[in-house]
Design a protein that fits this description.
406 residues; six-stranded mixed beta barrel; four-stranded antiparallel sheet; 15 strands
Length: 406
């Protein structure tokens, strides 16, 4: 059957055609973005952390008694933790834990110009043992001098120096050396001079969430202020059993007025980080499957209704010598035209939804052309299968039935 004739049939029942197009467009919009999110999640799973995930512990505690001397508490805690068998060293973690942020993501700028873009990074305030606890390997510059560490209540000044990861250095300064450069932290643009660059590791949750997995920086600061938190990073011996978690937690019960919230390997923090993302991706996948089923059922219903209205037309086609296969093929071609229009509209809506999610919901997503092609093929197959049964019924209409009904 000529395309021109098929287009006439589509226009003859334009309301039904419009409904099918809209169903396909909405399905493509949902399925495409689900595929983008799932793909981005899978990509993140495959990125190596470069961490000794079973040798670093995050320890989170909360001080609810305001009369507790936090400085004394921190000193006692570190000593108690380091007395636990299997523990190599412990460091106060004033700003972040590994892959378990204590607050919103940190930002860093290379200058104070208002229009300068920022980078998101993991921002760690550590004591003298912090660099070794994290296992940072220096590739340029030096470590902190003892005189550079500052400790105390809420910051009245900052250390003014920082070590940053090589990935962050490249992000800020491209091919130029970061050593000696001044970087500016947070919206307040607090200046710090870069004194060392180390091999990047997946340290900060905020940076990882923003696809800047190895961006991080450490400063020689132990500042607790009124945060009511006393958190620690702990390095343990390789191969130590999970019993060390319980022993560290027990060691911290020497002070009343404080609650130990969590002691865990970084491996667990990383799993929890991805679990949240994967749950969202699976939820989206479930919504996508439901959308496909609803679309298929909708197309079946609409095409069946259309076939019933055009029963006489199909009988005339059969009377003119059209085979059953030709009648079925004409309906499938008609559906393919509608799918094509729906795909074009759906891809446009997909891109709009993608930018909306990226800018407003902050989901991890990535547009991939092969995924769009896959979604197009998948949608066409689903809609063609949905058309098959109504088309088969239409092909069964005999010329005698039409003649009799006339």
């Amino acid at each position: 059957m000529a395309i021109k004739h098929i287009l006439k049939l589509i226009l003859k029942q334009k309301s039904i055609a419009l409904l099918i197009i809209l169903q396909i467009a909405i399905t493509v919009m949902i399925v495409s973005n689900t595929a983008f999110i799932s793909y981005a999640t899978l990509q993140n799973w495959l990125i190596p952390s470069k961490l000794e995930e079973q040798q670093i512990l995050n320890v989170t505690t909360r001080v609810f008694d305001t009369s507790v001397d936090v400085q004394s508490l921190i000193e006692k805690d570190i000593q108690a933790i380091e007395n636990v068998p299997g523990v190599v060293a412990a460091s106060y973690a004033g700003r972040e834990l590994v892959l378990n942020s204590l607050g919103p993501g940190w930002t860093i700028f290379k200058d104070t110009q208002p229009e300068t873009d920022y980078s998101v990074f993991g921002y760690f305030g550590l004591d003298e043992k912090g660099v070794d606890v994290l296992g940072l390997e220096l590739v340029e510059g030096r470590r902190f001098y003892a005189s550079e560490f500052i400790k105390g209540d809420e910051a009245k000044k900052n250390a003014g120096v920082i070590m940053i990861s090589d990935d962050l250095a490249t992000s800020l300064f491209g091919g130029d050396s970061a050593l000696g450069q001044t970087v500016y932290i947070s919206r307040q643009r607090i200046p710090h001079q870069v004194i060392g660059v180390y091999k990047g590791k997946m340290l900060g949750e905020g940076a990882t969430y923003n696809q800047q997995h190895y961006n991080s920086g450490v400063v020689p600061e132990v500042i607790w202020g009124n945060r009511q938190r006393a958190n620690y990073l702990v390095r343990v011996e390789k191969g130590v059993s999970e019993r060390v978690l319980e022993e560290v937690e027990t060691a911290l019960y020497h002070t009343s007025g404080r609650m130990v919230e969590r002691v865990e390997f970084v491996a667990r923090a990383k799993k929890r980080l991805w679990d949240g993302r994967s749950t969202f991706a699976l939820t989206m996948a479930g919504i996508s499957i439901i959308a496909c089923v609803v679309t298929a059922l909708g197309i079946v219903a609409l095409v069946s209704f259309s076939v019933s209205l055009r029963k006489k037309d199909h009988g005339v086609l059969r009377a003119l010598g059209a085979s059953k296969g030709k009648v079925m093929w004409s309906l499938i071609k008609e559906n393919t035209i509608l799918v094509f229009i729906g795909l074009v509209l759906g891809f446009g809506l997909s891109i709009l939804l993608y930018y909306f999610l990226m800018n407003n919901v902050r989901v991890q997503s990535v547009v991939e052309i092969p995924l769009l092609v896959g979604v197009a093929i998948f949608t066409w197959l689903v809609s063609t299968l949905a058309v098959y049964l109504p088309a088969k019924e239409a092909a069964k209409v005999s010329p005698a039935q039409v003649t009799k009904s006339s």
